[in-house]
Amino acid sequence: MSRILIRLLAELETAGILAALPRQSRYLLRKQGNIALPRLIAAISEQGYYLAPSAGLCVERLGGIRPAAEKTGLSMNTIQALKQGRATLRSYLILAVALKSRVRLQKINPRAALWTAKENTWTTPPSLLQQLYPLLPGKTFDIDPCSPCEGLTAPVRAHVHYTERHDGLHQSWGKGTYCYVNPPFSQLRAWIHKALAETGNGVVSILLCPARVDSIWWHTLVADRIPVVMLRGRLQFGGGDNRQQKAPFASALLIIGGSAQLPKRVAEATGGWLAR
């Protein structure tokens, strides 16, 4: 693993990322990669790069959580944490070594960010939200569990906003609440699983996602299981610096929980069509 870490350190230094890290973080990074993966990924993103391949992709290519744990010697909890973008760089490098994959920095471009969620701040078009608000009790969502910010500047009108700092994936979404979920595309499955689990508390979630009907996760999690409203055209997403990007894919709303009439009402309100 030392060889792969040395190569990564050289790339981080060339890109100016190493110098931007606090002294303690640099020390931990050089000490066999004992730096928190989210901290390093955030520093890499700030400089316009991302780490490839993603930990989630490594886990998938190794056959899933259990096979990845067996092939790496890491615990299943650690593998699960890696899939969610947590754990340490050291654990990620062990994963990459088991896959015999080269770890490298890749330059972000805005269009790629929409496909791969290397930037996690692509916000929902306000026009779509305005179509959804009238369907809600009080014309407001109760919770936005993956919001880029809190308060009046948050893009979604909600009583509660969970940001990355709050880790909405591991928070309770209340009981009988209405949630709007625009998750990081790289963690779609985790967020769909979370929304499904929250239905046990009577939570209703409207989840925006790419309409990737050819993907394994779509067939295993969505098809014939969750009501889907296919949105017409390509959505114009907003970035963290207020720039706009037209999505290079079709989008869908997953209606998780709620009444049997809600999917039809969402389709009518948004001009989409209800997948059968």
Automatic annotation (TrEMBL):
Single GO term (MF): site-specific DNA-methyltransferase (adenine-specific) activity
InterPro entries in UniProt: Dam_MeTrfase (IPR008593)
A Pfam match: Dam
Gene Ontology biological process terms in this record: DNA restriction-modification system
Name listed for the protein in its UniProt record: Adenine methyltransferase
Natural source organism: Acidithiobacillus ferrivorans
